[in-house]
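In response to reviewer comment 3 from the previous cycle, which asked for concrete evidence that the modeling workflow produces usable outputs, we include below a single protein chain processed end to end. The sequence was submitted unchanged, and the resulting structure tokens are shown without manual editing.
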Amino acid sequence: MAEGGPRPDTPSVDGARSSHLLDCPICLEQLRLPKYLPCLHTFCEECLSLYIVKETISGKSDNGTSFTCPVCRKLTHPVDTSEDKKNWVQQFPIDSNAVERIRLANQTTEHYQCKPCHKKGRMATAQFWCEYNKSFFCKSCKEEHHDMVHTDCDILNIMVSDKFQFSPEVSIRKCDKHKERMDCYCQDHRFLGCSKCIHVDHRKCEDVSTTEEYFNTLDKSSHFEEKRKSLKELVCTMDSLMKEFSLQIQNTTDSKDAVLKSLDDLQERIIKWVTKMKSEVMDELITKFKEEHEKLRVSSQKCERLKAAMENTLALSATAQQNKDHVSAVLLYQRAQAEIESCKDLLEEISNKFSTTTLEHEFHFDVSGQVASLSLGKVAVRKQPRSIPVGLKALHRPFSKRELKQIRQVYIRCPSDSSDCSINGLVYLSDGRIVISDYANKKLKLINIEGDVVDEMKVNGYPFDMCMVDNTTVAVGISRPGGIRVVKVTSSKITLSSEINTKVDCYGIVYRDGEFVVSTRSDVVSVTNDGTIHKLLGQTGYIYGMCRDPIGKQLFLTHYTDCKDSTAVSRLTADDVHTDLLKAGVVKKAYGVDMDVERNVYVCGDTSNNVMQMSWDGSIIRELLTEADGTVRPRGIFVCGDKVVVSNVSAEKRNYIHLFQLV
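The workflow returned the following structure tokens.
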């Protein structure tokens, strides 16, 4: 091994022309603590360790017991696979040849050192190079040592010659195991090692030689030239591939820029489109606002005119009576009678549809849909029934004094239904649309104000009772599998909003204070949005219907039984106090239940074939519908203002729902 490094003014072959060979193929920087694999490719220790961990964790390796060389992709197995993968790199040898090359390449600022002086512990700059001895000499050592013995050497003065080229390939690669020169080669195993390695592990091999002998064999057989030729061809191939990848990278970059431009163009078009749609929806908003505003103004004007007329009649009648103007008094008396009747009719008209009117923006946006399916929605008019003002109650005929008159029968079987319908629950929205749960066909259906089924949705399980969550959202109890389905309702579509899965079947259902209350086979429980269940009432038997008192926050429950003196309807207060209200008798196997704005409770008797109305405390009970009215096996019921919608499951009526009005 030569001593020292190349002079500043005399670049070495290795340092000037092949310093890139000392770069790590992974980080592309000069090798640090170089380790080489069995395929003889060398890497930084840290780079190789990180690569091994990443390769084995990614699942690309053979069951995590091997990895591929980052350069040639040859499968490599560590000696001990049980060791932590971070330590596998320690099992591979240090590339001492690369270490020496790096050392020599980095000594660019030092002169070559005289070898004899260096062995004596002195530092002396070399002036001569002996090719035969592969050593540097200073002038003194050349004359005193070299020239005395090697008189025939062609020694070169490196200070003046421009022919000198030194390559650190003269450095010796040593065996990592025995620290001796690697000068033996086993062709049987393609193993390069020192004489001790060969003697211990390869002494029975047939084809063992020194490295020099093997080199000469390869050199004479032109194997080196063949390999070099193949490598040159493959280098050209790799160069072509690199150019192709460069073109692909450029193409990908250009296409990325094209997509960005397309996105910008699309954004601009969408903005223009949205602006146009917004203008249309705003026009619709203004139109509906004017319509509702005009209706309210007209109603207010009727009240104002009638009020002014009655005030005028009061004043004139008082004057006529005081002046004993008999004719005028009689005429004013008659006018007062007409105004009183007119006022009663007006109050009756207003009380039947007294509600809070709101305008809502209704839309359904599916981010996974096509651009063409995007919409800014519609403006919907929502009317929420409300109790009439206290001052009008004296003239208002309460619902408890009215009768039910059927105003419509709606056919609800769809062509896609596999069997006749069986409606267990329904919701009547304030704008006249109806959502029903069809147990037999496992569907929810939406019916518009004209009485047509405009949408249907399959559900996983059997749907039972339904309740309102807000003006555009309803929920349904599900059995087999148990749970709750929350559905968003638009003008002509029902869409699943969320699923709450429970381990128990859910039958009756109401929405109270941000959570659901449902009945199971034997209990009444509360269910949060994440499916957490808390028992409120146990051992209740079958409860298929539930409704909520909007004023007192009480719950009314129907018990599916026909046993005499057993509970048919009960009440559960906000603090979970349970009270019986009605015994089975007139009502048998109570099913659907709902409450109107005057706190009257409506109950369907499944096997008693009737619909009952009772006061919230159970003190007043009367039949509204009987079998004589065509009511056979009523199940679902919902009250909205003075409108009542009922479903029957009898064979002849199960494909219909019936809309009534309290008159």
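The radius of gyration is 49 Å. We consider this sufficient to address the reviewer's concern, and the full set will be provided in the supplementary archive.
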